[in-house]
């Protein structure tokens, strides 16, 4: 049968409902057959923009890191190539099919990696202070993490595109805002680390560092110091990472050493904590349990010692976003140091009696914060 | 570009005299470290202790 366009127009013109029906049906048919492809196209375009941003962050931080080394430090030779190989270093986590004893394996792996990086960096420079060494380790970690984010996100994106698989891109679409938030924070952390300025995560060491002033500091563990003081007839043991280096120290090992001297009756941990959406930045919260982030090995150790010795652990945290935690400390957070100290004193009064001993741990990166 | 990407931060150092408690805020200079005493008090010649270093956002 021949299709007559004039007759068709006449038929449509007679009945406007038919035209409306066609207007509705055509898009429905298109979406039934090509809906996923259209969604894939829209989603992948948005993700591509974010991947480009990740690529840019990786490149700029890498350039920034290398120019910092060339201009501010004295490398023995041209270290660009050697450092380039470090950016690609990966860590293979232990098998977790049988999780028994996995913590000690992770601990060993992470520490070996840290020791290796520290030794390699130290060998590249003639006169490198402890402070500079710790800063370089942190800067290297930032570039490596950004590069890893970029590579993994790009892999998921390209796999979904290659296989034209829309469901494969959905988890990436859900995760990309969180990845970008962290990547943006990492990029912004570079200037503060280079200049040795305190970051939001340093609020715990800042509170404990102030309490340590005019006390005799001793080494408690690698890059970790402790000292003794008194408060209202109670003995206080203070523990924090050795500032002003860019380090979190080893509070687990420090706790182990302190407990071999004298068993505290209470442990209070002061740390920065990621705020939930809607919570105020720099707000203080109190709770129970070991307030310490990271991969989990330090927390495990502290929890194990506390459980074995039946020591209660209380937590005092200052809420902040990931951006605030790893970039230059904001005034709101810095201003909270005195309030945190008051809360700590109140906590000690409420939970202990005179003559008892309390261990106060300032958890976090102590860059730019001495004691 | 998100709002935070347009932000510029200036870093300040806050110092307090350990004797007369005079306090002052100045721009951060290289070598400033919290709980260091980089200078003397202009009023009593006591030690000025850095009590905090922080960033202020300029839009």
* Percentage of β-strand residues of chain A: 5-15%
Extended strand count of chain A: 7
Query: Largest beta sheet of chain B, briefly?
Result: 4 strands, antiparallel
Total strand count of chain B, please? 4
Distance between the termini of chain A: 93 Å
Q: Main sheet of chain B: which strands, in order across?
A: 2-1-4-3
Report the major sheet of chain A.
Answer: 7 strands, mixed
Q: How many helices of chain B?
A: 0
**Inertia-based shape of chain B:** elongated
**Total helical segments of chain A:** 12
Rg measurement of chain A, Å: 28 Å
Assigned CATH superfamily of the largest domain in chain A: Peptidyl-tRNA hydrolase
Oligomerization category of the chains in this entry: heterodimer
- Note the beta-strand portion of chain B: over 45%
Tell me what you see in this structure.
The complex is a heterodimer of chains A (371) and B (59). Chain A has 371 residues and is α/β, with parallel strands linked by helices. Chain A folds into 2 domains: 40-195, no CATH class; 200-362, 3-Layer(aba) Sandwich (Rossmann fold). Chain A contains 12 helices and 7 strands. In chain A, strand 1 and strand 2 form a beta hairpin. In chain A, helix 2 (16-72) packs parallel to helix 6 (166-195) and helix 4 packs across helix 5. Chain B is 0% helix and 49% strand. The model of chain B has no long low-confidence stretch (mean pLDDT 89). Chain B is mostly beta strands and 59 residues long. A 4-stranded antiparallel sheet of chain B has the order 2-1-4-3, with no helix packed on it. The chains are: A alpha/beta (371), B mainly beta (59).
Q: Can you tag this structure with a few keywords?
A:
heterodimer; A: 371 residues; alpha/beta; Rossmann fold; 2 domains; 7-stranded mixed β-sheet; 7 strands; B: 59 residues; mainly beta; 4-stranded antiparallel β-sheet; 0% helix; 49% strand; elongated
């Amino acid at each position: 049968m021949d299709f007559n366009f004039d007759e068709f127009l006449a038929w449509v013109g007679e009945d406007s409902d038919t035209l409306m029906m066609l207007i509705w049906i055509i898009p429905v048919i298109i979406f039934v057959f090509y809906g996923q492809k259209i969604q894939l196209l829209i989603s992948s375009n948005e993700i591509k923009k974010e991947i480009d941003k990740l690529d840019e962050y990786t490149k700029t931080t890498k350039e920034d890191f290398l120019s910092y080394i060339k201009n501010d430090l004295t490398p023995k030779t041209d270290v660009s190539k050697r450092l380039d190989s470090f950016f690609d270093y990966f860590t293979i986590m232990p098998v977790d099919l049988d999780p028994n004893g996995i913590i000690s394996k992770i601990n060993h792996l992470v520490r070996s990696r840290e020791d290796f990086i520290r030794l390699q960096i130290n060998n590249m420079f003639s006169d490198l202070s402890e402070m500079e060494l710790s800063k370089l380790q942190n800067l290297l970690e930032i570039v490596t993490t950004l590069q890893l984010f970029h590579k993994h996100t790009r892999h998921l994106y390209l796999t979904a595109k290659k296989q034209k698989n829309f469901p494969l891109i959905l988890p990436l679409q859900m995760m990309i805002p969180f990845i970008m938030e962290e990547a943006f924070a990492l990029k912004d952390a570079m200037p503060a680390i280079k200049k040795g300025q305190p970051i939001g995560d340093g609020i715990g060491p800042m509170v404990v560092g102030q309490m340590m002033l005019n006390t005799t500091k001793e080494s408690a563990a690698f890059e970790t110091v402790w000292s003794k003081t008194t408060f209202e007839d109670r003995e206080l043991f203070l523990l924090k990472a050795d500032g002003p280096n860019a380090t979190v120290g080893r509070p687990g090992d420090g706790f182990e050493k302190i407990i071999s001297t004298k068993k505290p009756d209470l442990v209070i941990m002061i740390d920065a904590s990621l705020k939930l959406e809607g919570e105020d930045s720099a707000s203080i919260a109190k709770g129970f349990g070991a307030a310490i982030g990271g991969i989990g090995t330090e927390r495990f150790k502290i929890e194990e010692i506390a459980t074995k010795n039946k020591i209660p652990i209380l937590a005092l945290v200052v809420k902040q976003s990931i951006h605030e935690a790893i970039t230059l400390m904001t005034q709101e957070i810095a201003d909270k140091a005195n309030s945190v100290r008051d809360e700590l004193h109140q906590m000690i009064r409420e939970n202990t009696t005179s003559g008892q001993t309390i261990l106060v741990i300032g958890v976090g990166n102590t860059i730019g914060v001495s004691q | 570009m998100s709002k935070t990407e347009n932000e510029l931060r200036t870093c300040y150092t806050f110092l307090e005299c350990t004797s007369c408690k005079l306090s002052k805020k100045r721009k951060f200079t290289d070598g400033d470290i919290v709980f260091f005493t980089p200078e003397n008090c202009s009023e009593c010649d006591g030690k000025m202790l850095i009590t905090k270093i922080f960033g202020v956002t300029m839009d």
